[in-house]
Amino acid sequence: MDMKLNYIAGQWQESSNAMANINPSDTSDIIGQYAHADKNQTEQAIKAARQAFSNWSKTGIQQRSELLDRIGQIILDRRQALGELLSREEGKTLPEGIGEATRAGQIFKFFAGEVLHMTGDLLPSTRPGLEVSITRDPIGVVGLITPWNFPIAIPAWKIAPALAYGNCVVFKPAELVPGSAHALAEIIVEAGIPEGVFNLVMGTGSEVGATIVDHPDIDAISFTGSVNTGKRIATNSISRMAKFQLEMGGKNPLIILDDADLDIAVDCAIQGAFFSTGQRCTASSRLIVTKGIHNRFVDAVEEKLSTLVIDHALKSGTHIGPVVDQRQLDQDIKYIDIGQSEGAKLVCGGELVKRDTNGFYLTPALFTDTSNDMRINREEIFGPVASVIAVDNYEQALQVANDTEFGLSAGIVTTSLKYASDFKRNIEAGMAMVNVPTAGVDYHVPFGGRKGSSYGSREQGQYAREFYTTVKTAYTLA
Ligand code: ADP
Fold first, then answer.
1. What's the mean pLDDT when you consider all of the chain?
2. Quick one: which of 117, 198, 305, 440 has the most CB atoms within 10 Å?
3. CATH class belonging to 3-248+453-477
4. Which of 158, 215, 227, 229 to mutate to test the pocket of ligand 1 (most atoms within 8 A of CB)?
């Protein structure tokens, strides 16, 4: 089988190591062998990016806009094939895979427009005869480190603004999903990226990732992944004063009040907690339900779950694909055991099931009779596992929702304007959802959280420029 190569300094480069990309819906299906870069190759990529920066940062906005637009268009033209590859390597369903590929194309198109909207300020000075301008410069060489759960959208929402604002990129995708990253790199190359401006270095976090984070020529790091890795990146970046931005975990609450529309409540819960196999940092893992609707809600969720098809991600009719790999499956099962040993009641799911192909199939698990201090309600599981927490009223629901170390996304299902408004004001989260699932966001507005979920400025939309540029204040004696 051909090895898929890294793209370094304008060349597709071989490596002595490669790793098999395995389909989690069918472990006998090897998608390809993907080269693993080593430290030396990662350093070459960083050096190439540094050398390219001087010219790239001075390119005109027209050139950058056209390049981003071409990349976006090729992605959109190939969304079907990209979606299939994505679903095959990650395990989300084909409609979700195609949807994610489409999103990646839209993001590049959005930033193709954003480049043309760069603004600055020209101000009078407090000192006579002087004039002050405020403009933005690119930051330099950025290291982009991404997770496996959104194999093309997250790379797109980091790479597109990085290039748009004139930075050079060293991109390291997650080990489990090199296929989408490689396909995206091929498109970026095909669209005509100049040598060294964009580099793909597939490989391990401990070697490639750590080399990027610690390298003096990396000016900024944008990371999405686990809390532990995020903390390590923060410590290492601070020690050399590099700029960084982290998106990490969540333990997102969805409040359901007595006055909720039950269909909307069930839909938000199932979509938010279990679709994409629960493997989203915005997944609703804590369903906080007031007592008047509790039993009706639990029965309706259970009934709906029993109709969902858990099967091969590429099969039509599948609602939920497999867990991404054995390690994640072990973690999910560990937490299902922990929940039961803590006294929570497993109402349904949490079973390993066999399908025609050998994959990591787990039925969606719903716990009731849980309290917010249980480990299943405090620690991120990242699987198709959700807990119901019964509460007396809205005030208690809000208090429980905020009682967490995370703060990414949070939702409420209610028909009360009063509670919806209070929730938007007082929920301690970066994203607040009213009668919509906690997962599922637009690409033209900021994405990010607070507390232990995120660090640094927001990603996506116009807000992305805070991270990918640095402000310059210039004084001129006129
Ligand atoms: P997960 O446990 O979900 O895989 P990680 O935080 O380990 O989450 O992975 C997210 C990304 O961070 C991946 O691309 C991974 O390779 C990378 N990574 C892991 N360890 C390090 C590290 N020490 N330094 C830099 N990047 C890392």
1. 98
2. 198
3. alpha beta
4. 229
